Amino acid sequence: MVSIENKRGLKYFFFGNLYFSEGLMIAITTVATLLYLREKAVPIPVTTLIVGVVNIPWMLKFFWGPIIDYFIRFGRKIFIILGGTLTVSCMFLVSLVDPGVSLVPFTLLIFLSHVGIGFIDVSTDAWAIDISTDKDRGKINGSMFAGQYSAWAIGAAVFPLIGSRYGYNFVYLTNAVLILLILLFPFVVKETSKREVKQKIASLVFKEFKKRTVLLVAIFSPLVFMNEGIMSFVMPLYMRDGLRFGDVQIGFISMILPVFLAVGSLIGGVVTDKIGRKSALYLFIGFNIVFTALLIFADTWWKLSIIYGIVGFLMGGHSTVSCALFMDVTNPRIAATQYGILTGIANVGLNGAGMITGSLIVSLGFARTFLYAAWVFGPTLLVLYFIRIKKET
């Protein structure tokens, strides 16, 4: 067994690797499934609604977190393994289902696969909080998001290529195999349990969320991720139905976003550990407003690629800083629960905005949808202004 607590390189690699599995599921949902459903002639509003529905488990972190904290004596690793097993099983089964014939079972299986990923995500976050400090929390978040976005980038490029050549059912089977391989890493990593007794979850949660700063961060969390939700859903549809690109071309251009998200995450982690959380958020969000709005001029593949890449870099930066802020205000005794609540609320903003993206496109058009994605940062900055952090590192 390998201990990672005092080995920064291994620590960053391990958590980045676990988040890699999450990135694969993001690529499956936001790229492969969107294209697969459109190939089966499912209407755009129904397509984005289904993708939003299967992402609902990411909103339910407030449910998975207490389970993990309640059974804290068993550690975090066991829930990573159990969650991964559920995801792999469902991915294998969904590869056998044709959404053109059985849309409901297809949706349900992907939904359950995200339940498994939800347990991986919450357990990984809690484990990271257990062994991190203020001095390396930004960099740990950077490594995790870099792993997630790298997988998203690879999946965005490779999954449509596989789907166009061998069928999208083979994409889901490939994803099952990749996540199964990732599950081998937790088996060789040693986890040191720091708490052996049951936690009084409810009383601690209520105590924490009575704090003004925690409440403001809870309001901030869904707002800061709404832009990412809209962008993740709108871009594959814009390229397919707006610019008439083919699936393979869409896949390679879609890869640009997560590649620059990964770079932005790493830079964002370093920057926020140096200049503080709020300063870094003002910097990344401010520029993101400008470049998201500039997407209205992206009517060729090269314009789209340049602006899309910059948006991805900025998005990765403020996502990493936001999650570091969530960790800062989280009580380690209820790490899975409190951080799960904050990130679960964040996913309500991300996924909720994504679910209505199809309707926005139909009613407003692609250009106005881009402007709306930029506008949502206005309330975000307003709430951020009122957040008071006693000590920024």
Describe the 3D structure:
The chain has 393 residues and is mostly helical. It has a single domain (2-386), classed as MFS general substrate transporter like domains (Growth Hormone, Chain: A, Up-down Bundle). It is 79% helix and 1% strand. It is built from 18 helices and two strands. Helix 3 crosses helix 5 (103-131), helix 6 (137-166) runs antiparallel to helix 12 (256-275) and helix 13 packs antiparallel against helix 14 (301-328). The longest helix is centred in the first third of the chain and has 32 residues, at 8-39. The radius of gyration is 20 Å and the shape is globular. The mean pLDDT is 88.
The first-level CATH class name = Mainly Alpha
* Mean pLDDT, all residues: 88
Corresponding CATH superfamily: MFS general substrate transporter like domains
Describe the global form: globular
Biggest sheet strand order reads: 1-2
| Class of secondary structure makeup | mainly alpha
Q: How much helicity do the residues have? A: over 70%
Order of helices and strands: EHHHHHHHHEHHHHHHHHHH
CATH topology title: Growth Hormone, Chain: A
Number of self-contained structural domains: 1
Distance between the termini: 33 Å
Named CATH architecture: Up-down Bundle
Number of DSSP helical runs = 18
Radius of gyration: 20 Å
The biggest sheet amounts to: 2 strands, parallel
Number of strands: 2
Low-pLDDT regions = none
Strand content: under 5%
